[in-house]
Recover the amino acids of this structure.
């Protein structure tokens, strides 16, 4: 028998999120009422409550529900129970026995009703609403509620298997039964009618099949292993409880089974008595029979123990002899000594355990433990009965206890647990949350393996046909251990042992490699590696003196590879203090500890337990802990806890622990006064009591304190449920666990936390916060602040206006004064506890003691008494409520004043009414005049908008001239590097370099060859993408650099892109496949944009470019037709509501005769007619003149706007027109720009254009060059300045934005034909064939969707839309400057964004319902989008039906594109920039190559590239130094 000892599994490791985290549940089901019975089969779950029986599927979906209420019909033995709907039932069938009989497909349901002693039903397992048989018989306990009884099916091990039902019934002396059998404890019932007395008969061969108990007995569990039946019971003898185990051999005759009775007692050494609470057998196909039980010791009801026993039956004992049970009429063996069994081990100690379920995984035993406060804990125990840290699988927010019975799902991946009225399906492990091999091993969970095929941590059953690695068969703290020994000849032997488990065929392929910074570590000739150990022999001189040597050990197990880094040191050189720390350091280095110093290790296992016995010298007095406040917290923890005691000055941390040996958690302290300190209590994953001690600088922990983690608080009622708006009313909350609440929050004031003034577990008092503006009733929902979390409280406080105290009267009674305070009745329901009063006399306050409250006729009266105040008359009283004070005057002294006021009021009212009526007439006249003017302005605006829409024409194009296409090099560079002009310039070759093939230097040539290794390139991309410091801009730059570097080999670039896209699809397929390619968050997404730009450049120029340029030109002309604010660039005619100039006043079109000065003698050209507006500024007029000149003559005028000036002919004299001059209007500090209207330029006026090169013209720079242009000047939009506008009433007309929204529609009508032509040029198919790149890529997406078995056709549509319209065409539509040599104004960008939005809406699958509040950019094209969508569907369909193109045909196209643009990019510059990224993440790329198993040749080539670039840098530095030295000489 093993000695009784505690397993080293502390509760503390359960309490920290960093140790283990909760596993998410996989479903739950809530029933009506508390659960009575809960059983499972491989296919279903059956739950019985007081009034219903449920059948659930494996995922807890409801299948059938049967009511257990009804009526009995018939007489005596023929009576039948019939279920009825509604409220007409009078009987409840309470189930006491619920057994699934899988072998014959039935569910046995037996129990009692209100009128019948016993009743049983046979239900179909597949459908419990189908009743196969009914029988009036008592099977199981006769009481409606009996939790100390057991029922099980007993199989008779013969060729023809028979089954019995065994019931073990709770029996206490003095209880009466409705059945004649009263003192019998165990019965055997038939499951068929072979004896002719009914299916459930207890009749047998010879006599009844039952045995009795000698005293009070409670049964806990029962089960059968092979032919042996095991029953566990609690037997009480006097004041001592004993746990009994009964063995029975299953025989064909029931009486023989009963007579095979043998028993044993389960005892805890050193304990007088104990009770068994729950039990579970450990599944095993071979002896011994192991069993686990939850015990609690007599006298200690809260602390419980999980014990492991060997319950293998001793069949050599005499049968039918037991001190507590017998088959005779009267038991006579009380003096017989039963066999005693003692536990093999105490597996776990936890407060209030209620249930246990055991399972096995290989050599490991796995225990699931439930507690009374609603926790489900998992415990792994190895073959040596050592366990890992327990894991919390589930935790209830309240204290609902776990039902005694738990069941494991048939595949072992989930456990079913019941909590009061709820069944939970909880995953047995959180393997999937472990993202690396190290994390998977560190989970210390035997069900988890690291699967090579999936490259993830999964259940072992999910890793098939693949190598895997898992936690070993015995408990280990680390994945490897090692020892360092000294051998003869100055040789050092390093033995490294791996603590992992793997498949047998994998362990045969085992290899190790040792390396240090200087290279290989081991000498040749050492022992070969044999799993799980490797050995390395090396020279003693290899270890540097007095410092450590870092060694990397790489392991290979089959196809699995991993590495570990260890530190070696000459063991005798390990010195330091304190001794305990030095001892641990010694073992960490693989050495041994002996005689107080570190030495070389010896053969055999090393035991670092010796370090725990070493005492460090303590210079500080030992701290003592007297209290911790608070000492009860929720599992969210608590901020700013206080620890009090003595000798605390040297304490640096507070350690939270149990009396076991797991790694504890520590919190730093502050505000340490020597007798108290503050610290944070961290959050916990579980509930229970833990210990605290104070940590000194030497690591010693002293003092004993306790802390309890409990459930979350809840509130059930609030009194009173109303408060006044000024706040501070005392409120009482009633609920549970309220002592852990830190504060109360109100929904109207989330930032203000109301601190409790008094609190206990059930009650909490606090004061309400203020609520300004509370009217007739403002409801405010309550929340509870617990640590850093906020919990909802299902209660509200209603805010009403503050109470109105009106007056008071006082009456003397002897030496006391009785005061009556009057208050207007309200909904606050104030009591005398809410009000205090103080009488004021002679500047002194006299307290008034509240006695009663009365209500009469909408007035509340508060009565109080001021005691012992002779000869004092109170004329003033202070009434206090919350934090408010109201001062009242005695009503008798105010009577005269009130009469005087009442007399004067009529005269005052008469005067006020006369003045008011006169002013009202004047105001009405002014308002009527204003309304008439406003109505007139609005009518004119609406009529003008109607005229614009009806007369709108499309004669916008006259002569756009030649289309200024950019060449391919500049087009591609702007696509590749839209925000990095420096990188764009370095990657483009100069004009002189284009015709010359530039040879790459040695380093660039090596890198160029390296990136042609596809596995290296994809690994490199994945490696840098995994780095958090590698931003989205870095990813875009990397994609564009790769595009430039591989531009000469577009076929290879396409292959790389396909591989990266497949990886991206696999990554997104399980998460959100519809989001793929929507944003540029990866390298391949930017790479796809570049690839589309290269392949579609020809199609863009030939088919789409002209239509795009015409649209841009049309928008520019349409914008210029109306007023444009020069400062904000907003215009009256636009597509974007954000750029709509709705504040514009009336304007007039002008036809100007423009003369151009020729030469220096005053000669002028023929007049040119230019259209302008009277509201145009001088600079805008210049722009229109120069634009008209270029359209008329096909070439631009000499110079930009700033190089010319204009003059206006007035009365035969030309007057200079300037943006700002002395006549400009100034409002506040803001100047209005001069317009043609300001200069009073009429229609048909003559304007002369002068070049600034003419010396007679004074130079003038543009005002827009001023960095504060928008702050100093305004044009059409008046500045927000308070100023008298009497001088400019024309700008005071009210303008409404909504009236001018018709201008958006006018602009849309004007350019609509250009938009349609552009869209159809994009999704049109010239010669019924899509561009080769589009067809090829869409076919690629089709094939990937088919391979990934994506059933949703919408996903494929979204992929295609995200890859072509969104990633390429929208980029072109919004940025025409990428295609043409032109500038794009912000206003034009806004209009193009509306067009691009309509373009993308045409590809959308959803039909958006637009209302009056929808954005205007959606409403503009709302009627056109359905038509466009049909065209898009036809476009996608035609591409899909188009004959596929071969890979060879497409690659020929790519080769032609490469040759066509050969030598246009600086490949060397791109490679150098690319190397900067490789150099930045060199170590991470090497690690990724190692992880993915890339060939060693690629890694060597990468190292050569690095060395070559480093050599070039060194040469460049040396050369520059030599040159500098030469210049110095």
């Amino acid at each position: 028998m093993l000695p009784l000892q505690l397993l080293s599994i502390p509760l503390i490791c359960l309490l920290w999120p960093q140790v283990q985290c909760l596993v998410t549940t996989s479903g739950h089901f809530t029933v009506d009422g508390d659960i009575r019975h809960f059983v499972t089969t491989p296919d279903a779950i059956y739950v019985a409550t007081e009034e219903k029986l449920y059948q659930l599927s494996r995922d807890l979906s409801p299948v059938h529900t049967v009511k257990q209420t009804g009526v009995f019909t018939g007489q005596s033995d023929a009576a039948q129970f019939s279920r009825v709907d509604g409220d007409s039932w009078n009987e409840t069938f309470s189930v006491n026995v619920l057994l699934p009989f899988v072998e014959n497909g039935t569910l046995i349901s037996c129990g009692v009703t209100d009128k019948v002693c016993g009743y049983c039903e046979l239900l179909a397992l597949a459908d419990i609403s189908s009743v196969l048989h009914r029988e009036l018989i008592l099977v199981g306990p006769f009481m409606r509620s009996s939790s100390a009884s057991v029922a099980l099916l007993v199989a008779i091990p013969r060729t023809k298997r028979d089954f019995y039902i065994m019931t073990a019934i709770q029996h206490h002396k003095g209880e009466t039964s409705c059945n004649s059998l009263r003192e019998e404890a165990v019965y055997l019932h038939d499951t068929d009618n072979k004896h002719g007395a009914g299916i459930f008969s207890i009749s047998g061969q010879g006599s009844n099949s039952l045995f009795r108990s000698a005293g009070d007995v409670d049964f806990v569990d029962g089960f059968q292993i092979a032919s042996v039946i095991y029953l566990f019971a609690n037997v009480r003898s006097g004041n001592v409880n004993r746990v009994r185990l009964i063995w029975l051999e299953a025989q064909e005759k029931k009486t023989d089974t009963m007579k095979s009775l043998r028993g044993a007692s389960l005892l805890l050494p050193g304990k007088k008595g104990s009770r068994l609470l729950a039990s579970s057998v450990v599944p095993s196909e071979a002896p011994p029979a192991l069993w686990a039980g939850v015990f609690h010791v007599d006298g200690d009801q809260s602390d419980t123990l999980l014990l492991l026993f060997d319950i293998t039956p001793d069949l050599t004992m005499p049968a039918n002899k037991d001190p507590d049970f017998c088959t005779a009429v009267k038991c006579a063996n009380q003096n017989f000594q039963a066999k005693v069994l003692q536990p093999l081990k105490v597996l776990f100690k936890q407060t209030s355990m209620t249930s246990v379920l055991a399972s096995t995984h290989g050599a490991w035993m796995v225990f699931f433990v439930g507690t009374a406060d609603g926790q489900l804990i998992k415990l792994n125990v190895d073959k040596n009965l050592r366990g890992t840290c327990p894991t919390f699988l589930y935790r209830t927010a309240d204290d609902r206890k776990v039902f005694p019975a738990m069941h494991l799902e048939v595949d072992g991946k989930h456990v079913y647990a019941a909590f009061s009225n709820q069944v939970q399906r909880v995953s047995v492990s959180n393997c999937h949350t472990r993202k690396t091999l190290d994390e998977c091993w560190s989970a210390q969970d035997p069900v988890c393996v690291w699967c090579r095929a999936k490259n993830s941590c999964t259940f072992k059953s999910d890793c098939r046909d693949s190598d895997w690695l898992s936690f070993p068969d015995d408990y280990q703290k680390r994945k490897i251990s090692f020892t360092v020994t000294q051998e003869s000849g100055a040789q050092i032997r390093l033995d490294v042992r791996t603590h992992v488990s793997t498949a047998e065929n994998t362990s045969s392929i085992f290899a190790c490699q040792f390396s240090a910074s200087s290279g290989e570590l081991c000498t040749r000739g050492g022992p070969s590696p044999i799993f799980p150990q490797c050995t390395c022999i090396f020279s003693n001189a290899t270890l540097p003196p007095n410092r450590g040597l870092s060694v990397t050990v790489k392991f290979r197990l089959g196809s699995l590879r991993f590495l570990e880094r260890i530190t070696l040191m000459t063991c005798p050189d390990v010195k330091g203090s304190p001794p305990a720390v030095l001892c641990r350091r010694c073992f960490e280095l693989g050495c041994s500890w002996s005689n107080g110093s570190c030495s070389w290790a010896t053969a055999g296992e090393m035991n670092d337990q010796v370090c725990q016995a070493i005492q460090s010298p303590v210079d500080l007095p030992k701290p003592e802990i007297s209290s911790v406040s608070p000492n009860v917290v929720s599992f969210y923890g608590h901020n700013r806890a206080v620890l009090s005691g003595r000798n605390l000055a040297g304490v640096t941390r507070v350690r939270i622990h149990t009396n076991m040996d797991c790694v504890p958690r520590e919190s730093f302290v502050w505000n340490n006064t020597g007798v108290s300190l503050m610290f944070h209590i961290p959050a916990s994953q579980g509930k229970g009591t833990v210990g605290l001690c104070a940590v000194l600088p030497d690591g010693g922990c002293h003092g004993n304190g306790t802390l309890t983690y409990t459930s979350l608080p809840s509130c059930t009622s609030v009194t009173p449920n109303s408060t006044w708006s000024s706040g501070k009313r005392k409120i009482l909350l009633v609920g549970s666990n309220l002592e852990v609440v830190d504060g109360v929050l109100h929904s109207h004031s989330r930032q203000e936390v109301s601190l409790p003034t008094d609190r206990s577990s059930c009650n909490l008092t606090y004061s309400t916060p203020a609520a300004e503006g509370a009217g007739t009733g403002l409801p405010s929902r309550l929340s509870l602040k617990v640590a850093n979390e906020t919990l909802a409280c299902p209660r509200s406080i209603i805010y009403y206006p503050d109470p109105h105290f009106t007056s008071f009267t006082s009456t003397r009674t002897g030496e006391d004064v009785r005061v009556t305070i009057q208050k207007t009745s309200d909904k606050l329901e104030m009591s005398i506890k809410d009000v205090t009063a103080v009488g004021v006399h002679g500047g002194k306050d006299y307290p008034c003691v509240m006695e009663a409250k009365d209500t009469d006729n909408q007035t509340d009266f508060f009565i109080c008494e001021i005691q012992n105040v002779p000869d004092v008359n109170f004329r003033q009283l202070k009434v206090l409520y919350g934090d408010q004070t109201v001062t009242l005057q005695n009503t008798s002294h105010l009577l005269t004043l009130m009469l005087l006021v009442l007399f004067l009021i009529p005269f005052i009212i008469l005067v006020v009414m006369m003045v008011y009526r006169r002013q009202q007439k004047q105001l009405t006249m002014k308002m009527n005049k204003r309304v008439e003017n406003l109505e007139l302005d609005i009518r004119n605006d609406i009529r003008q908008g109607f005229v614009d829409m009806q007369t709108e024409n499309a004669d916008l194009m006259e002569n756009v001239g030649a289309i200024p296409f950019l060449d391919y090099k500049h087009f591609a560079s702007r696509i590749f590097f839209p925000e990095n002009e420096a990188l764009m310039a370095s990657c483009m070759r100069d004009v002189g370099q284009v015709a010359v093939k530039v040879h790459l230097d040695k380093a660039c040539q090596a890198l160029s060859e390296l990136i042609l290794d596809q596995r290296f390139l994809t690994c490199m991309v994945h490696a840098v993408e995994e780095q958090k410091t590698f931003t989205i801009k870095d990813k875009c730059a990397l994609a564009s650099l790769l595009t430039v570097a591989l531009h000469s080999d577009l076929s290879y670039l396409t292959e790389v892109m396909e591989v990266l896209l497949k990886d991206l699809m696999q990554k997104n397929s399980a998460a959100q496949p519809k989001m793929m390619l929507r944003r540029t968050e990866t390298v391949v997404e930017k790479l796809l944009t570049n690839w589309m730009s290269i392949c579609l450049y020809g199609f863009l120029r030939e088919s789409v470019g002209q239509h795009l340029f015409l649209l841009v030109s049309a928008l520019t002309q349409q914008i210029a037709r109306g007023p444009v604010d020069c400062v904000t660039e907003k215009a009256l005619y636009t597509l974007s509501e954000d750029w709509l100039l709705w504040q514009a006043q009336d304007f007039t079109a002008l036809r100007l005769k423009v003369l151009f000065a020729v030469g220096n003698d005053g000669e002028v050209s023929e007049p040119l007619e230019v259209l302008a507006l009277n509201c145009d500024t001088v600079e805008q007029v210049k722009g229109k003149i120069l634009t008209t000149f270029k359209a008329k003559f096909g070439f631009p005028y000499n110079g930009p706007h700033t190089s010319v000036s204009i003059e206006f002919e007035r009365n035969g004299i030309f007057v200079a027109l300037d943006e700002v001059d002395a006549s400009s209007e100034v409002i506040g500090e803001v100047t209005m720009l001069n317009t043609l209207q300001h200069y009073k330029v009429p229609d048909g006026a003559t304007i002369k254009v002068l070049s600034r090169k003419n010396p007679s013209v004074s130079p003038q720079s543009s005002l827009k060059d001023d960095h504060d242009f928008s702050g100093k000047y305004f044009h059409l939009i008046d500045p927000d300045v308070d100023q008298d506008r009497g001088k400019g009433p024309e700008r005071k007309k009210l303008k409404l934005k909504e009236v001018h929204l018709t201008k958006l529609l006018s602009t849309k009508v004007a350019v609509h034909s250009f938009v349609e032509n552009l869209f159809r040029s994009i999704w049109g198919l010239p010669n019924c064939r899509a561009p080769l790149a589009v067809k090829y890529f869409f076919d690629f997406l089709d094939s990937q969707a088919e391979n990934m078995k994506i059933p949703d056709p919408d996903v494929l549509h979204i992929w295609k839309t995200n890859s072509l319209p969104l990633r390429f065409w929208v980029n072109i539509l919004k940025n025409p400057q990428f295609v043409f040599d032109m500038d794009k104004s912000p206003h034009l960008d806004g209009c193009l964004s509306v067009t691009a939005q309509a373009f993308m809406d045409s590809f959308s699958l959803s039909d958006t319902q637009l209302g009056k509040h929808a954005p205007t950019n959606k409403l503009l094209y709302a009627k056109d989008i359905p038509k466009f969508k049909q065209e898009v569907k036809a476009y996608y369909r035609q591409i899909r039906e188009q004959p596929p193109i071969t890979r060879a045909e497409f690659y020929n196209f790519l080769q032609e594109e490469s040759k066509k643009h050969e030598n246009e990019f600086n490949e060397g510059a791109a490679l150098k920039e690319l190397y900067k990224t490789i150099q930045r993440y060199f170590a991470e790329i090497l690690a990724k190559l190692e992880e993915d198993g890339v060939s060693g040749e690629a890694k060597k080539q990468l190292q050569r590239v690095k060395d070559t670039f480093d050599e070039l840098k060194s040469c460049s530095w040396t050369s520059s130094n030599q040159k500098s030295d030469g210049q110095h000489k």
The two ends are 94 Å apart (CA to CA). The chain is about 25% helix and 30% strand. The CA atoms of residues 1230 and 1272 lie 5 Å apart.
